[in-house]
Structure formats: C-alpha cells, structure tokens
C-alpha cells in the first residue's frame, strides 16, 4: 500500500471496502439507484481482452480512474510471497521516458545492479549456510551502484505529473484477491490518465528495485513483526490454511522478500499484468465515446497474454481443532476462524447475515452480552470472507478480553453463542434488523460522494463476481434467508473440528493471559 496525497478518512473507508464481505461493504448514492448499476454503467472490451466500465456522472468536472488487476497474494507461488504487493510499488517507478534523465546511460547501471542483486539473493537463500563476508561485499557493491544510479533518476516523476495537473488521491493497494491503481483528476485531464496508465504497464522500468526491496523489508518489520494484531494473524492464518495461498500475508515472508530478483519480478509481471487480466473503471464527468477512442489509442496495442496461472490447491477438509499461541509485548487478544464456502455458495450468504446478528451494532448478540453487559470483552467482531472472497475462506471472530477476564473466558463465551445459533430461536425482529442494516448500508455510506469509491465498487463486483450488480443482488437474496437456514449453516460450519484458534498473550503472563 502506498500512502500519498490521500484524504485519511477516504483512504480508511476505501480499504475497508476492499476487505469486508460484499454484504457489509455495499454502498450506494441514494434510493434512486436501488435497482443497481446496470442501467447506468456501460461496458466494452478491446480485442486484447481489456475491459472498461464507464459511469457518466456530470455533476462535477472531475473523474476517478482506476485499474484493477486480478492478482493478489493468493496468486503467489512458493518462494515469491509478497510479490503482488512489491510489484504495486514498482509500478510507480516510471518508464524509459518518465522517471529518468538519460535512460541510455542509466540502463547499463541497472543491468550491473541486477547481476549483483542475483548473486546477493542466491547467497541469502543459503540461509544458515550463507557467507556473511560475501553478503557484506555484495551489499557494499550494490550500494555503490545505487549511488551511481541516483544521478539519472527523477524521483517520483509520475506523482509530480499527476499533482501538477490537479490529481488527488493518487494511490494503489494490494490485497489477497486484487491490486488496484487509482487517482482523481479534472475532467480535462482524461487523456493524460490514459497516457500515463498505459505507459506504466507497457514500458515499465524496474527502477530502484533493490532500494524498494529494502523498503518492503522494513514495511514487513513494522506491519507484521512489530504489530501485535498482524503478528498474531500471520501465525493464525498459517495454521488455519494448510495448502491454500490465503495462508500467507500480503506483504510476504522476509526470506522471500530478501531473495527477490529482477527475473522473478519480470516473470510475475508477464504472467499477470496482461490486458486480459486488467479492468478499468472510469467514473465522473466523462463521455463514453471519447473513452472508447482513448482506450483503443493507448491500450489497444498492448498484446494479449495467456490466461494467468491460478491457485490449483484445494484446501483439505479440516479434521480437528488447530491452535496457535504467540507472545508479544501487548495486551491479550483472540481470533477464531471456521472454514466457510466461497460467495457462490448459499451458506456464504447465510454466514454474512450471521456475522451481522452476532456483532453488528450495539444491540447485536456478542456486543450486547460480552461488551456491554458482562464486560468480558473490550471489543468483538464477527465477519466472513477473511482474508479474501475469490476462494473459500474463513468466518472469523476476533476480540480482546477486558481485564481481569482472559482469552480463555472470551473464547468460551463466543463458543456458547455459536452453539446457541445451532438450536436456538432467531426472532423475526432480529432477522429483520440484520437485513435492514445490510440494505441501509446501500444508502448511508459517504463512499459515493467520491467517484473513486464508485469505481472500486463497480470493479470489485465485476472482477470478483462477474456481475456489476452483485452487491445489490446479495442484499436482495438476504431477504429470503430463513431462521432454519441459519441454524443449519451454523451446524455445518461452527464445529470444533473446523475451528482454528489464535491467541496472543502478553510476555510474562501465564497460559490464560493472567500475571504469573
């Protein structure tokens, strides 16, 4: 994730829309759009397979441009974890024209850096058998080359061009399922957007490759190794999934990051950054025919690629409870996960509704009982499709005990609530409230005040679910769920043998989280 000229609240909300289940993330501008997007969004494709979604909104002379690539951490092979996220950073480094003072003089230095970088990566892969002296020698040589290279680099020129032309919210993000690049611009800069976005993928130079690799390594240290929630979540996911690549984090393992080579990155780029794996969304004060002309002019010569490789692993059925405990200098916390089917399965829909019944709002079951009444938890949340929605994933409950209560007490209290779902009554009032919450979220979000949110919604619906109205149809389908379906889904999913528990305890505490 890059952090640039974004509005903080807008960024936080946009990231939320990426990771929450479609049920919880659906947003709409107003009641007039309740029927969906189909009558407002126009779609076309180029011969090379690149798709374009266009929503003309002429209220303000601006537009949001977004390109979503169907590649995320779930597409990474063993040994290249984190590559989708790393490439997101590379895509801002410029071309043979942009980002350089003299590419002809820059190129030989880049090639020499690659030779040294390959040797360094090979030495790092030896693990405990690596030669520290050789590593130092190669790193020193790389530093010398990087210093020579800086003389030819125009730092962040892509950002500067957009900024000088009124661009806002320039950013990109990578998740388990997709990577997206976006910016908001004045309407009269539409052709500039097409020019820059096409060139950054057709003529990309892997500039500052090794220094950026170090940046990612530091990001890994800060976001995964030194953050208690991420520290717990990584170990928990590695236990919850045995084979499926949802098991590793988006940022990747340090051992893989330190062994990135230009060759690995190029293979990844050529496999996934093809026009037939990219979809563009343009929303705002634009004209469909003009977009068609510019799309053909700037993206039409991009050659179609083979269909990208996709995960071929079927996660084995879990046959017994799995547990992992980690210790960190932080207050205790808990995460529990149950394997759940993909969004195409009816149970996925039902589990989304269960998540709302359990934890959405102050009067939800877990919030009312564990946070407000018994004060066992500081916070609690239940949600489906974690970490992603392209494949079968996890239904998760996460929270933190309130002192003097322990993670063991919190875990048992949550399990009691899940057991009640299997046999207990689901009142019409409770069911109606959860459905109304989902439907109301189509109208109450700030999201569509910004075209970039609408672009994200359209692209997510199409890229992940192949239906521009996927979130609307999901909410309508919620209205058909019965209390018996909830009980049946709870019995199928919330079984001890299907459960993975991750516990974070404070260093120096006993096994329950209490002081020794």
Description of the structure:
This protein is an alpha+beta fold and 516 residues long. It has a domain at 322-506: 2-Layer Sandwich (Cytochrome Bc1 Complex, Chain A, domain 1), CATH 3.30.830. Helices cover 46% and strands 16% of the residues. Strands 1-2-6-3-5-4 form a six-stranded mixed beta sheet, sandwiched between helices. A five-stranded mixed beta sheet has the order 7-11-8-10-9, with helices on both faces. A hairpin with a 6-residue loop joins β9 (377-386) and β10 (393-401). The model is unreliable at 1-34 (pLDDT under 50).
Q: List low-pLDDT spans.
A: 1-34
Largest sheet: 6 strands, mixed
Structural class determined from secondary elements: alpha+beta
H/E element string? Answer: HHEEEHHHHEEHHHHHEHEEHHEEHHHHHE
**What is the terminal-to-terminal distance?**
40 Å
Q: What's the CATH class of the domain at 322-506, please?
A: Alpha Beta
Instruction: Using the CA coordinates, give the radius of gyration.
Output: 24 Å
Name the CATH superfamily assignment of the domain at 322-506: Metalloenzyme, LuxS/M16 peptidase-like
Q: Hey, roughly how much beta strand do the residues contain?
A: 15-25%
Task: Give the helix level as a range of percent.
Answer: 40-55%
Count of helices?
19
- Please state the overall shape, judged from the principal axes of the Cα atoms: globular
* CATH second-level architecture of the domain at 322-506: 2-Layer Sandwich
Mean pLDDT: 90
Strand neighbour order, sheet with most strands? 1-2-6-3-5-4
CATH topology value of the domain at 322-506 = Cytochrome Bc1 Complex, Chain A, domain 1
How many β-strand runs? 11
């Amino acid at each position: 994730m890059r952090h640039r000229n974004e509005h903080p609240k807008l960024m936080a909300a946009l990231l939320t829309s990426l990771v929450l289940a479609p049920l919880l993330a659906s947003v709409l501008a107003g009641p007039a759009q309740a029927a969906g997007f189909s009558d407002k969004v126009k779609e076309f494709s180029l011969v090379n397979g690149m798709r374009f979604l266009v929503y003309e909104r002429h209220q303000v002379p601006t537009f949001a441009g977004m390109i979503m690539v169907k590649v995320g951490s779930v597409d990474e092979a063993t040994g290249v974890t984190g590559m989708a996220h790393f490439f997101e950073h590379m895509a801002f480094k410029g071309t043979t024209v942009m980002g350089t003072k003299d590419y002809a003089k820059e190129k030989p230095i880049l090639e020499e850096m690659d030779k040294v970088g390959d040797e360094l990566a090979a030495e790092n892969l030896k693990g405990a058998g690596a030669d520290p002296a050789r590593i130092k020698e190669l790193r020193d040589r790389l530093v010398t080359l990087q210093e020579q290279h800086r003389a030819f680099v125009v730092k962040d020129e892509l950002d500067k061009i957009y900024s000088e032309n009124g661009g806002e919210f320039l950013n990109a993000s990578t998740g388990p399922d997709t990577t997206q690049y976006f910016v908001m611009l004045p309407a009269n800069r539409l052709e500039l957007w097409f020019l820059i976005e096409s060139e950054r993928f057709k003529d990309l130079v892997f500039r500052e490759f090794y220094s950026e690799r170090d940046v990612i390594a530091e990001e890994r240290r800060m976001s995964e190794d030194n953050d208690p929630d991420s520290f717990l979540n990584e170990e928990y996911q590695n236990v919850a999934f045995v084979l499926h690549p949802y098991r590793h984090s988006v940022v990747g393992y340090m051992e893989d990051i330190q062994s990135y080579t230009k060759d690995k990155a190029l293979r990844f780029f050529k496999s996934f950054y093809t026009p037939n794996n990219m979809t563009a969304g343009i929303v705002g004060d634009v004209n469909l025919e003009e977009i068609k002309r510019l799309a053909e002019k700037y993206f039409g010569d991009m050659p179609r690629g083979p269909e990208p490789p996709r995960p071929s692993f079927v996660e084995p059925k879990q046959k017994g409870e799995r547990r992992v405990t980690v210790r960190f200098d932080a207050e205790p916390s808990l995460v529990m996960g149950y394997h759940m089917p993909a969004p195409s399965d009816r149970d996925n829909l039902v589990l989304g509704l269960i998540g709302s019944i359990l934890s959405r709002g102050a009067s939800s079951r877990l919030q009312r009982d564990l946070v407000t009444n018994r004060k066992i938890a500081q916070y609690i949340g239940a949600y489906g499709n974690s970490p992603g929605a392209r494949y079968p994933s996890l239904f998760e409950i996460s929270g933190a005990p309130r002192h003097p209560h322990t993670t063991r007490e919190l875990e048992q209290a949550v399990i009691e609530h899940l057991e009640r779902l299997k046999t207990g009554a689901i009142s019409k009032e409770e069911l109606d409230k959860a459905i109304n919450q989902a439907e109301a979220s189509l109208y109450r979000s700030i999201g569509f005040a910004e075209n970039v949110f609408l672009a994200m919604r359209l692209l997510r619906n199409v890229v992940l679910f192949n239906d521009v109205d996927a979130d609307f149809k999901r909410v309508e389908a919620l209205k058909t769920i019965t209390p018996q379906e909830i009980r049946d889904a709870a019995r199928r999913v919330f079984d001890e043998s299907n459960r993975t528990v991750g516990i974070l305890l404070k260093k120096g505490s006993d096994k329950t989280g209490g002081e020794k």
